[in-house]
Amino acid sequence: MSLSSADVKRVAHLARIEVSDAEAEATLAKLSGILGMIEQMQAVDTSGITPMSHAQDLVQRLREDVVTETNQRELFQSIAPLIGNGSTEPATENGLYLVPKVIE
């Protein structure tokens, strides 16, 4: 795929980037090199190659999926802030924390 300086300026205009003629020529040279490399990569026959998730054949070390902490929900909810208005009850209901209603 060949690009022209007009193509570079058009893309720069769409991106709202001001590009001088010298910058357009320099960018054209860089983009032409990138597109040439992509064409070379696409020319390689990869029909017998299986896709990989990583360039190296790495395996993550996984740990056992076991519970390491006990359920402390009741402890955490017992120290929740108080409802207010002189009440001594924590601001929780059905296992959830109660927060003030915020209306914007």
Tell me which CATH architecture of one domain applies here.
Orthogonal Bundle
User: What structural category do the secondary elements indicate?
Assistant: mainly alpha
What is the makeup of the main sheet?
A: 2 strands, antiparallel
Number of strands: 2
SSE order, as H and E?
A: HHHEE
What amount of the residues lies in strands?
under 5%
- Radius of gyration using CA atoms only: 31 Å
Characterise the protein shown here:
A hairpin with a 2-residue loop joins β1 and β2. The protein is built from three helices and two strands. The radius of gyration is 31 Å and the shape is elongated. It has helices spanning 5-14, 21-43, 73-78, and strands spanning 92-93, 96-97. Strands 1-2 form a two-stranded antiparallel sheet. It has 104 residues and is mainly α. Helices cover 38% and strands 4% of the residues. Among the domains are: 5-43, Histone, subunit A; 72-104, no CATH class.
Q: Which terms summarize this structure?
A:
104 residues, mainly alpha, Histone, subunit A, 4% strand, elongated
The gist of it:
The protein has 104 residues and is mostly helical. It contains 3 helices and 2 strands; from the N terminus they run H-H-H-E-E. Among the domains are: 39 residues, Histone, subunit A; 33 residues, no CATH class.
